[in-house]
Amino acid sequence: MDQGTPKRIAYRILTGFDQHYRLFSRINAGAPERFLNADWHGVQRAQKERIRYYSRRVSETVAVLMQQLDSPTISTELWRATKTEYSQLLQGHPQAELAETFFNSVFARLFRHRGLDNQHLYIHTSCARRSPFAPHLLCYRFALRHEPKAAFRKAIGYARLQLKFADLDADLARLEQRLSTLLKRIDAHDVEFLKPVFYRNKGAYLIGRLIGRRGESPLILPIRHGEGGLSIDAAITRQDDCSVIFSFTRAYFMVDTDRPAALLRYLRHLMPNKSWAELYSAIGLQKHGKTEFYRDFLSHLNHSSDQFVIAPGIKGMVMSVFTLPSYDVVFKLIKDRFAPPKESNKEEVQQKYNLVKEHDRVGRMADTQEFRNFAFPRHRFSPALLEELLEVAPSEVELDGDRVIIRHLYIERRMTPLNLFLDSAEDLEVHHAIGEYGHAIKQLAAANIFPGDMLFKNFGVTRHGRVVFYDYDEIDYMTDCNFRVIPEPRYPEDEMAAEPWYSIGPKDIFPEEFGRFLLGRPAIRKSFMAQHRDLLDARYWQALQQQIRDGQYPEIRPYQESCRL
To answer: Is the pTM here over 0.85, yes or no?
Structure first.
């Protein structure tokens, strides 16, 4: 390509993005059929495929440009002009903010993530402002008057789900009863729902709000399959419960929209505590979620002065973890060498993190954002942190003048490590946390994930009190594990021997041993045995394995039992 044609380069990049979004939208558009047909295998396949689409389109676009450019150079006027031309092409584009991120991805792939400045990249968006709150363009609105059931019936009809219900009249009666107090409190006169239905795993979600003369309330109606057809399973009206449904521990929604910025503006009205980064990721636009996170991170750095420090808790054998106390994330990088008994390598750890990204996290595994060549201001690093990183991961750390560059970095939401939480918890808090810990393990297992290392330090407690797993270097598929009962000793001396009297394969797991390294504290043991004794029985795990092999997918709802109708 002639070096003087930035318009042609810009057009090629935008063509790549448009192709990506068409394919992204096509797979979203298939979600209603998969849901109505209860095609849960298809749901999982589509979820994995959609996550992989983005990188493929970036690679294809880069390949075309590499054929046309002899030696792309960051320092030339070409790329500044290309960005200017690209910005012109984005005027009025319905996914302009996503297209900016795609441009960044192509540029970073071409130049190995170097030269990150706003001359060549959209470090700051060129879009004038966020989409306005415009429910009249996004929603169906129905008058409640004196017959709320009729309004909700219309909403179900507009969602094209009405004919598949087992007993819609009964569902609507229960819904009206559940909402009656709230409807009176806010003097509700209308209900509105977003036109697109949100799909994830085994659920469809109508999302909107109740509008009254004395206020408003978010409203989410999860719809699920029952024995005779569909049913309204719950009514979600609290902001915190809505926030959990859109949690960073959940798989991404599938929702068909050509104007995601306007859709997310509406969601943020319902859940003002959610960041733009979280919401973009929640609907499967996790690459732009990274962009939103980075912009917010830069803004936070400019308005704070604290230093990055080693994260509190027991240091890991595989990952080095640090944090900025004033910011609610942790930064993780893979060490160059792993302490015994760890036997994996960097590539295997990266594969585990990719597995978690594509797998159903069932509300029990933290989502991660992966970055390459992430630059930090050097003066914000505490001396102890910089010394540790250079000692344990010198191949991942580069000192470049006033910057510290981490070549490969994972970023996760910060949580309180479960072991630290338990150290300072009262008995009632211990009981709740241990209950959550056991439920986390069971729900992961039902979703075909065995955590591997189940020590409390590998789990965190969220602000909602949920226990979430976040250390992935030893996870495995349940179906690849061999759960065994410890054989009876042959002789009395066997139990005193330094080595076991039975053979142990690389995938062998003995659940009855879990208690030895988990249940030393009496209060913890008492609570665990009362709630989750079955986790110490190999037969429990074997039964779960059989369910998975039989294709029985877990019914794990992202809301409390008290929300159900």
So the answer is: yes
